[in-house]
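User: I'm new to structure prediction. If I give you an amino acid sequence, what do you actually give back? Let's try with this one:
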Amino acid sequence: MGDILATEADLLGMIKEYLNFEEFEETVHSFDKECQSKGRLVSKPRGSALRDSKTRATQKDLLSSFDDGDHKVFFELWTENIPSEVKDADAEALRLEFYLHIHFTIYPLRRHPGRHDRAEFEERISYFKQYLETRGAALSQTTEFLSYYALPFVPNPTAHPSFKNLFQDSWIPELRDKLEQFLSVTLKPSNTPRLMTLYKEGGRSTKEAMQQLQLQLVESDRRITSYVRKFSKMQADYQNLIGITAELVDSLEATVSGKMISPEYLQSVYVRLFSSQMRQSVVQSTDFTRPGTASSMLRLSIAPQRPKDVPMLPSLDYEKLKKDLVEGADRLKSLLLQALRWRLTRSLPGEQRTTVLQAYISNDLLERYSTKQKIVLHLLRSTNEIVRQYMARLINAFASLADGRVYLSQIPILLKLLTEVLRKEDRESLTRENVLVALQKLSLRRSQQTAMIADDLIGWLVDELQDSDCLSDNTLEYSAALLMNLCLRAKGKRKCAENGKHVLKVLTDLLGHENHEIRPYVNGALYSILCIPSVRQEAKEMGVEDILRSYSEEENPDLNRQFEFIIKQLNSEEVLQPQHRELSGESLLTTEYLGIMTNMAKAKRKSTPLPQPSVDEPLQRPVTPSSHRNASAG
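Assistant: Good question. You get back a string of structure tokens that encode the predicted 3D arrangement of the chain. For your 634 residues, that looks like this:
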């Protein structure tokens, strides 16, 4: 009870502090009078003493971590306590931050000259590289800092003439003095009321935290997929190895009985042993009968691989880039859009490509937060066809990567611009095709699905697919895949039900198209919308079951089984149908009966991957054509 009263008194104190700050004198008088009559305590403003104390503690911690070379603690405190309007815009703050990064990078070299921990230094170099590609990129065109962009690639900076000043005895004390002066000015206690500070910082920090969590979630999903793939391969290799081991044991027992092992038998064993690690042609051409060959290759296969150094691409001046993209000549715009796309698509998969994409995002290349009248994305409305096409290609490149889709989905105007292009461009237009492919990739995200359905993209897609013979194979495939992804949502199914016969007619006609790559998406869309009773009734009246059976093929049992699932869905009946706005299913349980997560303990003890639909079943989760092809091939 005491804690509640103290919290209430503190909150009332913040309200009074704000009213006094804004000089609401009469309101303060009424506020005091009513609090007194109700017996409510109002805490006094904490005053400058406590704020000064906190400021001094923060300053002391920053200087201490500077002296200790603890870059993680330092930059965590720096991010939390230096106002964003200072650290992101103030030229002196940006210069100081750059030199601080250099200080922490070379700290091991200064602390233990000639005998530093190489692993620690490489970790700090990696951290410095990341900084140069993101926040440090803004200073890459400044002559003062140009030489330091070569620091990560110099084997021994202590002996390099360009960095001689960094290792002089006076360099660190001078930098520390600059830091101390900066902190004493920047961390000066503010007279701003606590209530206003909470309001301003709370909203911003929550938004930033959500964006960071989204990126971390995408990265976690990517890692999980990679680990599951590696585990599956390891499990298959293990089972193969057990089988080969059993055969070799049998062979050893046979030799004890005097039976000889033929060279052909050994060759077949070796081929099985190495087939998962080497190309089949190499395995077949290797002479395993030569003594020591197989054992040497086995030892080599488990030897630790030395990681290759991934070159870092030069930093860019993104502000100048964005200015020229908006104000430059059309040819320059086209060349810049092409170069930016190539930098992303031609970078090495993995660390280098991730670094390029994160640099684009952190520098807000597509200007998601801009309030200017003309922004980079408006190039989709350019009168120049090449500019429009190359802008669409760049957006498509962003949409091909998970982090890129997260970034694109945070741009409010993007979907409107893309659908506008889709409806205005000619069918043969490459701009239109790239926009369609980008939309299909964005439809993997739930928020984008919702917006596309609200914009009646389903109706446009159905009309487009009605004249399928006029579409290129790529357009046809991505249109069908996009339609299926939208039909998987309840809102999408209801949108299809508004014109059920037309949708069913288009989908069943597509089953007979010569491009069989679209069949999984057509089947998935059919299966999804047939869960709506009115659509099922219209399908029965149209004889959809007979149409499906007419397309069955003896040589394609997988397709036939998918048709059987669709027919089963067509003939299913629900005894109990929820009424309009009536809760049912999972929404009923989680809305009215949500309790403590009692199943978490079991989930931690045994983690089972989500069941994936077999090839027999129609698709029931959003996919892109490329990912579906890869899954089918696997």
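You can read the tokens as a compact description of the fold. Here is one thing that stands out. The chain is about 65% helix and 0% strand.
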